[in-house]
Design brief:
The structure is a homodimer. By secondary structure, chain A is mainly α. The first copy, chain A, folds into 2 domains: 48 residues, Arc Repressor Mutant, subunit A (Orthogonal Bundle), CATH 1.10.10; 128 residues, Orthogonal Bundle (Tetracycline Repressor, domain 2), CATH 1.10.357. Chain A has 8 helices and no strands. The longest helix of chain A is centred in the middle third of the chain and has 25 residues. The first copy, chain A, starts with 8 loop residues before the first helix and ends with a helix. The C terminus of chain A is likely disordered. The interface between A and B is large, with 41 and 41 residues. Chain A binds a DNA duplex through loops.
Amino acid sequence: MPFPPKTNSDAIVNTAAALVQTDGLAALSMRTLALRLGVRASSLYRHFPDRAAIETALAERAANQIAMAMESAAAETDGERALFNAARKYLDYAASNPALYSLLMATNDSVSRPVWELLLRLVSQATNSPLDEAGATAFWSFLHGFVALEQKGHLGPSPSKLTFVRGTQALVRGLSGAKSAATT
Amino acid sequence: MPFPPKTNSDAIVNTAAALVQTDGLAALSMRTLALRLGVRASSLYRHFPDRAAIETALAERAANQIAMAMESAAAETDGERALFNAARKYLDYAASNPALYSLLMATNDSVSRPVWELLLRLVSQATNSPLDEAGATAFWSFLHGFVALEQKGHLGPSPSKLTFVRGTQALVRGLSGAKSAATT
DNA sequence: GTCTATAAAATGATAGAC
DNA sequence: GTCTATCATTTTATAGAC
């Protein structure tokens, strides 16, 4: 065999993730990616139709990783506590993988669905609702907004963790409270 | 004069804003921008040192516009009501100028300061605090997160305005409540 | 499945004339 | 202050040999 396989889809996605992680999304070109894999850029097209497909695979990977991290953190407890723990993992993932997180949220596909599904479940449990879509929307908005503002430096010097905790508690209490008040 | 002035900094920024507004940020190149202005690309460098400077000017423009819109909306009332009205204008601006809003939030400079200052003031008034930085952070996080998630389609079919209102109310009530509770 | 070679197209930016 | 001309670079993607 003159040209034995040197790479595969998984290796490509893994290497792409590492590349994006260290050098940012802008550094992800077919050339540089191929270089790290020890192949030529044209070889990548045997595994992915185009660059966009690689980005989508990366976003899916990020969505699954963040959802899994939240899931296992939430599984240890339940109710409000489970939601808090999951939220903390969400923040941790975004802080540890800023470029991948950014890519995930920039992808307009429905690739972030696992995150939505999980948040919907956790928020509903925390607010004692059957399906609190409005609450989940508000909570996710707060989470993502906090991450995005902090990552871009709009919040000035990094806010303390207490700032995040206070916001989280206020929102959850507000969501539960409004619900009870409306029901009562 | 063989080469009379054909453009100036203001015209460049105005045209750039219109271009980004209609065709997106990716369409903003020195060539296309110059074309719309009826000059050559190289002429732009007499007014701005590079492309980044034009983007910064656009972001500043967006920050001022959104802050002014919020300001005047808030001025009509005060307290919680003023904050709600301002938040609504924030959403309106982002909806009407998605690309400019996106550019503003993607700019990591301290160009968004006018927005922060205003929100800090309005949130503090709404929660009866002298300087509620944690509250302002939480509120801005919620606002921006909501806009970003919606713009990227992560929330599925557009959430109703009620969804936004409920989140806003829950957050403000939660922030005020937590404060009183902590104080008491 | 990988390679070489290349197409085809953008882009930001500069030099120097007028 | 604007022009022409051009540089220098980068990018995605394809054709065809092996």
